[in-house]
Amino acid sequence: METLEVGKAAPEYISSLPPQRSILSRAASGLFSSPIGVAGATIVGFVLLLALIGPLISPHDAVDHNLRSRFKAPGYSDSSGTFTLGTDQLGRDILSRIIAGSRVSVLVGIVSVLIAGTIGVSYGLVSGFLGGYVDTVMMRFVDALLSIPFIVLVVAISGVVGAGLGTLILILGCTGWVTYARVIRGEVLKVREMEYVVAAYALGQNRPLVMLRHVLPNVIASAIVLAAVQVAVTILAESSLSFLGLGVKTPTVTWGLMLADGKSYINSAWWMTFYPGMAITITVLGVVFLGDWLRDFLDPNIRARA
Fold first, then answer.
1. N- to C-terminal Cα separation, the chain
2. Which DSSP category does 213 fall into?
3. Beta-carbon neighbour count of residue 22 at 10 Å?
4. At what angle do helices 165-191 and 150-161 cross, to 10 degrees?
5. CA distance 58 to 100
6. Which of 44, 50, 284, 289: disulfide with 232, CB 3.0–4.6 Å?
7. CA–CA gap between residue 300 and residue 306 (Å, rounded)
8. What is the DSSP letter of 72?
9. Share above pLDDT 90 across residues of the chain, in percent, rounded to a whole number
10. In this predicted structure, what is the pLDDT of residue 166?
11. pLDDT confidence tier of residue 285, bands split at 50, 70 and 90
12. Alpha-carbon distance 87 to 143, whole Å?
């Protein structure tokens, strides 16, 4: 067996090691090796692109109505153009409304998750790290919020602030953080007992520095995975609340409002509910698929077994 001569051969041996790949390179490699990850990234990327360039590619005005063209089946054409997915009860183009609705879904999903994630991660981090009486009081507050039905909170906040897109984002952000708090608190309880945290204390680092420098980076992966899943939950919640009349109001176009408009005509104009429903289903599936891949990619135990 060959041995390294200390101080002489070691540099040559180290230089022969393969270079460490960046996290983006490893993510791209892992993504393309996962069919589920590719499917999720493709769907999510398409929806994001649709939300960004939607007004440029929309074949018609999403809110412009024409009563002469109402309830037209998919593929109908007239002097104003072709209605690929048909029209609704006011003659509005279904395809254009789905494209416009994607912007609301993306906006609500991302902004609500950012609000909820920021509050929940901070809350769970402090609660789990401090422990003791502080942790007990903070978690009992979380339990109290969880005991209040979601619809009751929605109605209460809507009654005070008023209905609208901003109100819906506020509601979903201020009610969704408790999930992050519980998950992150559980992760912090494990991480704070690790050897490197104890060593940081031994080196004289104060508690806030240990919490932010050594504990937070080691629980943030769980928050990212949870955020990916919560985007799907938030999109479903927005659609459900808009369908019930508790979310976004007209003339803003959302997939939930499209479902509400079409529920009375489901037997005579099935396309009014079918296509918005498919848009919601495919988008949520794409986000869930991407979240599953993120969980596998960010979990060191799964990577080690692979």
1. 30
2. I
3. 9
4. 130
5. 8
6. 284
7. 10
8. P
9. 30
10. 83
11. very high
12. 46
Q: What is the pLDDT of residues 152-211, one digit of tens each?
A: 777 777 777 766 788 888 888 888 899 899 999 999 988 888 888 888 878 888 888 888
List the domain boundaries for the chain: 104-289
- 288 alpha carbon, distance to own chain's centre: 9
Residue 59 CB partners (closer than 8 Å, separation 6+): 81, 82, 84, 93, 95, 96
> What's the confidence (pLDDT) of residue 21?
59
Q: Which of 261, 112, 233, 85 is nearest to 172 (CA)?
A: 112
The structure's pTM equals 0.82
Right CATH for 104-289 from 1.10.260.40, 3.40.190.150, 3.40.50.1220, 1.10.3720.10: 1.10.3720.10
Inter-residue long-range contacts of 68-73, CB under 8 Å, 24+ positions, other chains counted: 71/265, 71/268, 71/269, 73/271
Q: Quick one: average pLDDT of 50-70?
A: 88
d(CA 173, CA 113): 6
Q: Quick check: 84 and 90 in contact, CB under 8 A? A: no
Which amino acid is located at 104 in the chain?
A: V
Report the SS3 class of residue 31: helix
Instruction: Give CA–CA dist 186/299, Å, rounded.
Output: 16
**Alpha-carbon gap, residue 62 to 43, rounded angstroms:** 22
| C-alpha atoms less than 13 angstroms from C-alpha of 221 in its C-beta half-sphere | 14
CB 133 within 8 A of CB 99: no
Rounded Cα–Cα distance for residues 221 and 227 (Å) = 10
pLDDT of residue 44: 92
What's the pLDDT band for 14 if we cut at 50, 70, 90? very low
Identify which of 241, 306, 302, 294 has the alpha carbon closest to the alpha carbon of residue 23. 294
Query: Rounded distance, CA 84 to CA 75, Å?
Result: 5
Q: What is the mean predicted confidence (pLDDT) over 119-144?
A: 91
